[in-house]
Amino acid sequence: MLLHDLIDVLPAYKMVTESNPLISHLAMDNRKVEKGSLFFCIRGYTVDGHTFAKQAVEAGAVAIVAEEDLNVSIPVIKVRDSKRAMALISARYYHFPSTRMHMIGVTGTNGKTTTTHLIQQILTDHQIETGIIGTMYMKYKGKQVEVKNTTPDALTLQHGFADMYEMGVEAVTMEVSSHALEMGRVHGVDFNIGVFTNLTQDHLDFHKTMENYGRAKGLLFAQLGNGYGNGKQKIAVLNCDDAHFEKLETMTAVPILTYGLSEHADYRAINVHIHESGTDFQLVKGNDIYDISLKLTGRFSVYNALAAITAAAASGVPITSIINSISNVQGISGRFEKVDVDSPVHVIVDYAHTPDSLKNALETIKEFAKGKIVVVVGCGGDRDRTKRPEMARIAEELADYVYLTSDNPRSENPQTILEDMEKGLSKNTYSIIENRKEAIYTAINQAKKDDVILIAGKGHETYQIIGNETYDFDDRLVAKEALEERF
C-alpha cells in the first residue's frame, strides 16, 4: 500500500520530505524492521523509539512516523501522538478488519477474563465462530498466540484481527485494559458492544487517581459513538450496581443495557445461593424468570455471568441458548480454580491481585468453608504501591491466617514490597515467607482437615519475574506437589 493511502486516515500530520513509497510492512521495533517497512517511533517507559530511527533506516525502513523532527533521508510523518497514529494506520493497512466482525470489548478492574471467556463460549455454542483476546492469550480457530499485555499493542491487535477474519472468525470478545484505552491501542477498533464489569482500586501507579482511572475505562464507551460502522447498532452493557455507573452513563451516546442485583437492572439476579461447587441464581428479564446453575463459585461470578448474558443477548443469541451454554462452562484457568487433589485440605488458586478481587475471593470461601481460611498472598513489584497494605489488611480481616510472600517482584527488592504490605496488618496472625514456593508448602503442611487455602495473585501465570529473570512457576503445580507429598 502506498504511504499516502495509509496516512490519509490520520486527522492531522505534517509531511517532512515529500515522497510516496510503497509500504509492505509495519514495525515499532527497529529489530523487526525489514525492507519496505513503515517504522513507528514510540516512546516507552524505558526506551524511546526516536533514538532508533537511524537503525530503522539502515534495516530497510522507507518512511517513519514520529513525534519530533528526525535527521534521516526518508520521509517522516510528524504527528502529535505516535501510538494513536500507529493504531489508525495499522487498522487502515489491514483494511479495517474489526468492521468485518462482531466486536465485543470488556473493560473493568476485575472479571474481564472470565466475562470474555463466558461470552466466547456462548457465541461458539450458538455456532458463531468466535476469537478471544486477553490476559492469557489471543485464541481463535484452534490457534493460540501468547500476548505480553492484556490488550496487545495496535500492530499485534490489527494483525490478529486480520488473521482472524481471513480464517473465518465472525466475532471477537476481548479484554480492554485501562492502559490500552489511555495509550490509544484500541484506536481504530470498531466495537459493537462495550461491557463494563466494575471499578475498584488498581493501576494507580499509572493513572495516579481513581478519577483518572475511571475516565480511562470510560473511553471505551465514549468511542462507541452512535454510528453503524458495520450496519449494527452499538450498545453499552453496564453494571448498574457499581458506583461508577452513573458517570459511565454520561460518557456514552449509545443505548444502554444494565445488569446487576438491583431491581432496576435490565438483566437481574435474584435468590443467589453460593456453594463449594458453584452458584445458583434466578435471572429476571422483564416478566420472565430463568433458573441458572453455574459451575463457577461466588457472588462475583454472578456478576460476570450477568455481564456475559447481557452481551450475548445484545448480540442476538436467544436467552434459552445463553442459559444452556453458561450453565455448562466448567471454569476459567486460574480463576477460583480448585487444585485437583483428593485431600482433607482444600486449595484454591485465584488471580486476585487487587483489594476488591481478594475480598471477593475470601468472602466467597467464607460461604462454604468448614475449617479455617488461610491465604497466601503477595503484591507485584513496579506496580501500584498504595494497594499493598490494603491487600494485607483485607487478607487479615477475612482469613484466619495470612502468609505474606513474593508475587512478581520484578526490579523491586522483595523485602520492600513485603514491608509495604506488613503496614496493613495489626494482628499477630501472619508469617512472612519471601520464597513463594516455601510459603505455599508451609501453608499446606500446617493446614488441618477442612481448612481452605487461597493462593492469591498469580492465577493462570506459569512464571515468576524476579529482577530481570523469568522463572518457571505455577501456583497450581506447586500446590499439587505439596498436597501429594503430604497426603
UniProtKB/TrEMBL annotation:
UniProt KW keywords: ATP-binding, Cell cycle, Cell division, Cell shape, Cell wall biogenesis/degradation, Cytoplasm, Ligase, Magnesium, Nucleotide-binding, Peptidoglycan synthesis
Residues recorded as bearing N6-carboxylysine in the entry: 217
Cofactor requirement: Mg(2+)
Example GO biological process: regulation of cell shape
Domain Mur ligase C-terminal per the UniProt entry, residue ranges: 334-459
SUPFAM superfamilies recorded: MurD-like peptide ligases, catalytic domain (SSF53623), MurD-like peptide ligases, peptide-binding domain (SSF53244), MurE/MurF N-terminal domain (SSF63418)
Domain Mur ligase N-terminal catalytic residues, every copy: 23-78
Annotated EC: 6.3.2.13
Mur ligase central domain mapped to chain residues: 106-312
Subcellular location(s) per record: Cytoplasm
Binding site for meso-2,6-diaminopimelate: 383, 407-410, 457, 461
Metal-binding recorded as keyword: no
Catalytic activity: UDP-N-acetyl-alpha-D-muramoyl-L-alanyl-D-glutamate + meso-2,6-diaminopimelate + ATP = UDP-N-acetyl-alpha-D-muramoyl-L-alanyl-gamma-D-glutamyl-meso-2,6-diaminopimelate + ADP + phosphate + H(+)
Enzyme class, first EC level, given as a word: ligase
Chief location: cytoplasm
An annotated Gene Ontology molecular function: magnesium ion binding
Binding residues for ATP: 108-114
Pathway(s) annotated for this protein in UniProt: Cell wall biogenesis; peptidoglycan biosynthesis
Function according to Swiss-Prot or TrEMBL: Catalyzes the addition of meso-diaminopimelic acid to the nucleotide precursor UDP-N-acetylmuramoyl-L-alanyl-D-glutamate (UMAG) in the biosynthesis of bacterial cell-wall peptidoglycan.
Protein name: UDP-N-acetylmuramoyl-L-alanyl-D-glutamate--2,6-diaminopimelate ligase
Species of provenance: Salipaludibacillus agaradhaerens
Top-level taxonomy: Bacteria, Bacillati, Bacillota, Bacilli, Bacillales
